[in-house]
Amino acid sequence: MEMEAQENTVQQKLSGNNMIEMIKVSRSYPPDIQALKDISFSVETGEMFFLIGRSGAGKTTLLKLICNMEMPTNGLIEVAGYNINSLKGKDLALLRQRIGVAYQDFKLLNDRTVAENIAIAMEVSYKKQRAIKQRVRDLLDQLQLTSKHDLLTGELSRGEQQRVTLARSVANSPRLILVDEPTGNLDSTTTEKVMDLLTRSNKAGATIVIATHDASIYENSNKRIMELRDGMIHSLVRGNTI
Ligand SMILES: Nc1ncnc2c1ncn2[C@@H]1O[C@H](COP(=O)(O)OP(=O)(O)OP(=O)(O)O)[C@@H](O)[C@H]1O
Ligand SMILES: [Mg+2]
């Protein structure tokens, strides 16, 4: 009962106005690297939002702060209305279950199969085995990986590993999806498949933040695009205007 009440609150907050709110956030690393400086912005619930900037600008650091993989040195980060750095235990676990992350360096389990890697996200939230199997098949079909179902992820090309990472991040239909450089190793046809999948998840209600170097995926969109430069916000514009 208590668990249910808790889940209801998380659910309510997840449908509030802003999915992400950052106020004056900085992150430094020793000895004196300022990866992010004084970042304030918000992402609305249901938005697809692009994060761009040169290598080293701070994109990955920003995504890691949003999912609580790293802590800010200063500032406030709210996700779904919760201060993500003060959440603990069950509350944090529940919120994390609703965030899908596709890491730039994949973080796949290389001694498990493609299907097992994708299923993991769904197993932690106690989905039925039959539903999991179906979802894994659908995602592999959409990403043209059907024949890779039973391969170990360590046996795949980088472009294939990248798509498995993406499939894992969306598998459990999270409310927030963070994707770091999702098309870096892909040709244009496969890039389109990846973007179709993300667009579909977005239309189904997920808020999506995409960090990328690949102008082809945002230059013709009407989505908001934030450019980081040396850890600071250089510009924040709606697409089609740059
Ligand atoms: N754990 C760490 N320790 C020290 N410095 C770090 C750490 N993580 C990131 N940095 C530094 O912070 C800065 C921002 O790095 P980040 O990975 O966020 O950039 P990025 O925009 O994602 O770059 P890329 O486009 O190459 O992925 C870089 O100067 C990087 O060297
Ligand atoms: Mg990066």
Notes on the protein architecture:
The protein is an alpha/beta fold and 242 residues long. It is built from 7 helices and 10 strands. A 6-stranded mixed β-sheet has the order 6-7-8-3-9-10, with helices on both faces. Strands 2-1-4-5 form a 4-stranded antiparallel β-sheet, with helices on one face. A hairpin with a 3-residue loop joins strand 1 (18-29) and strand 2 (33-44). Helix 4 packs across helix 5 and helix 4 (114-123) packs parallel to helix 6 (158-170). It is globular. The termini are far apart. The mean pLDDT is 92. Bound molecules: adenosine-5'-triphosphate and magnesium ion (MG). The site of adenosine-5'-triphosphate has 12 residues, from strand 2 and helix 2.
Short description:
The chain is an alpha/beta fold and 242 residues long.
Can you give keywords for this protein?
about 240 residues, alpha/beta, six-stranded mixed β-sheet, four-stranded antiparallel β-sheet, 7 helices, 10 strands, globular, binds adenosine-5'-triphosphate, binds magnesium ion
Going by helix content, strand content and strand pairing, the class is: alpha/beta
Q: Helix content range of the residues, please?
A: 25-40%
- Care to count the β-strands? 10
Give the strand order of the largest sheet, numbering strands 1, 2, ... along the chain.
6-7-8-3-9-10
Mean pLDDT: 92
Radius of gyration (Å): 18 Å
Ligand inventory = adenosine-5'-triphosphate, magnesium ion
The H-and-E topology, N to C, reads as HEEEHEEHEHHHEHEEE
Distance between the termini: 51 Å
Per the principal axes of the C-alpha atoms, what is the gross shape?
Answer: globular
Low-pLDDT regions: none
Strand content: 25-35%
Q: Can you count the helices?
A: 7
**Largest sheet composition:** 6 strands, mixed
